[in-house]
Design brief:
The protein is an alpha/beta fold and 262 residues long. The protein contains 8 helices and 8 strands. The chain starts with 6 loop residues before the first helix and ends in a 6-residue tail after the last strand.
Length: 262
């Protein structure tokens, strides 16, 4: 399937591009006086500032990050806080947006480690690279591509993180299969995402918000666990963190690639 043949993907791409341009324009005016740009994940009828974006990071972690990285934060959690990153590790952030989680990861893994960011949107990639330069981050690289076809070799990273992006994919088995492929044996997943309670059918999830708003495309807890197990992951766990809307929650998703996996 070509990139342009997936209308949901193109809607997501357009939304992210719009946010990146908005953040860039606000930055030119004044990052200190302008309100943050609307996030990609912003279901109607809720206060998205409470469940999405930079408010989910503690001030100490983000104090010295570029303001544009904070304004472009669209996620539903802080995956770097739960991935237990160690010095010297290689990290991949799926759907890296303005780069906030890549920059935080690069700091945690230190100069002997490395952090990749993967995004399909040129405008976000430009913004992320600008933010990395502003932060003087040397151990980062931003790649263009989709999370269903990760442009890295097999067994090339120690940790995969993502922040409210997997729910946007229309081919989640492919995403999870790619996560398993690029991880080294013993590597792990630490993802923040929106998930549905198990009793909600797909139609009921769609009633609560759009796909591009990170609601309609969300997996249930059991679906997430089943897909990870089917891909070969072990120690799978989905932990709910905060309610996004009725029956839908921000969650931490963890899993480990077996040490003996090929």
């Amino acid at each position: 399937m070509s990139e342009n043949s997936n209308p949901v993907r193109e809607e997501v791409r357009a939304r992210y591009a719009s946010v990146a341009v908005s953040v860039t324009n606000e930055g030119r005016r004044s990052l200190l006086t302008e309100a943050p740009a609307a996030g990609c994940c912003e279901p109607a009828a809720i206060d998205e500032s409470l469940v999405f974006g930079s408010a989910l990071y503690d001030d100490a972690s983000t104090a010295d990050l570029p303001g544009a990285a904070l304004l472009a934060s669209l996620g539903c959690g802080n995956p770097t806080a739960v991935a237990d990153l160690q010095a010297g590790e290689t990290v991949l952030d799926l759907g890296s947006g303005g780069g906030i989680d890549v920059l935080l990861s690069a700091r945690r893994v230190g100069p002997t480690g490395f952090a990749y960011g993967l995004d399909m949107t040129d405008e976000m990639l430009d913004l992320a690279r600008h933010n990395a330069a502003a932060a003087q981050a040397q151990n980062v690289q931003f790649l263009k591509g989709t999370i269903e076809e990760i442009p890295l070799g097999s067994g090339s990273v120690d940790v995969v993180i993502s922040n409210c992006v997997i729910n946007l994919s229309t081919d989640k088995p492919a995403v999870i299969g790619e996560m398993f492929r690029v991880l080294r044996p013993g590597g792990r997943v630490g993802v923040s995402d929106v998930v549905a309670e198990n009793h909600l059918a797909p139609a009921q999830r769609a009633e609560r918000g759009s796909h591009v708003g990170c609601i309609a495309g969300a997996l249930s807890i059991t679906e997430y666990e089943s897909l990870l197990a089917a891909a070969g992951f072990e120690q799978v766990g989905v932990t709910l963190t905060h309610e996004v809307t009725d029956g839908m929650h921000g969650a931490i998703v963890r899993a480990v690639k077996p040490a003996g996996a090929a």
